[in-house]
Amino acid sequence: DIQMTQSPSSLSASVGDRVTITCRASQRIGSYLNWYQQKPGKAPKLLIYAASSLQSGVPSRFSGSGSGTDFTLTISSLQLEDFATYYCQQSYFNPRGRYTFGQGTKLEIK
Amino acid sequence: QVQLQESGPGLVKPSQTLSLSCTVSGGSITSGSYYWGWIRQPAGKGLEYIGRVYTSGSANYSPSFESRVAIALDTSKNQFSLNLRSVTAADTAVYYCARMTYYDFWGGSRIGAFDIWGQGTMVTVSS
User: Fold this and answer.
1) Is the peptide bond before B9 cis (omega within 30 degrees of 0)?
2) A–B interface: beta-carbon pairs under 8 A
3) Chain B: residue nearest A36 by CA?
4) I need a surface site. Which of A16, A68, B30, B123 has the fewest CB within 10 A?
């Protein structure tokens, strides 16, 4: 199975900062990578699909890039509501539909 | 607007079967080309994909659960279900149901992503 590794596991930043989170796949997955945001006690929310496409309604300060094995999620100017845990998820084509998440990156207020 | 809501027992005994339902409102579970999936999250830990079922009723599962899981549609109730057999304390988690939508992107490719989630339900495995 494809393993997804995020770094860092946690990150402290201030409002207005530019933040980048990295996700690495154990094998090449093209652009088959999604990003989610999860706040405490809430369900995850889809932010970005296909590595760089912004889900409808998601603020433009969120962006994604990468392909193959290395991917990044960038928040251009942190807002208070962005402090949360972020997960990547590979959605690489396979008939049996085996999807895996990264272990998460917790973004905290400095 | 489509919404999902999980339901089921919050406490299950070890070695028994964990059974949850997810009710879909605001749309038919058989319309469109969607998958309906289950994901769980142990307390303080990350997300773990369990499996999904297509609108046709065809299901597939993560290898980690394949031997003891079944996901099925109940079209009469506009629901889909999760049955996880032979549970242990390690199965204690918040269980989420979610819709997987396929998005088109460059080169004619399509990617599945979980775009709508239920609020989650806590299941504890304990005697």
Assistant:
1) no
2) 75
3) B114
4) A16
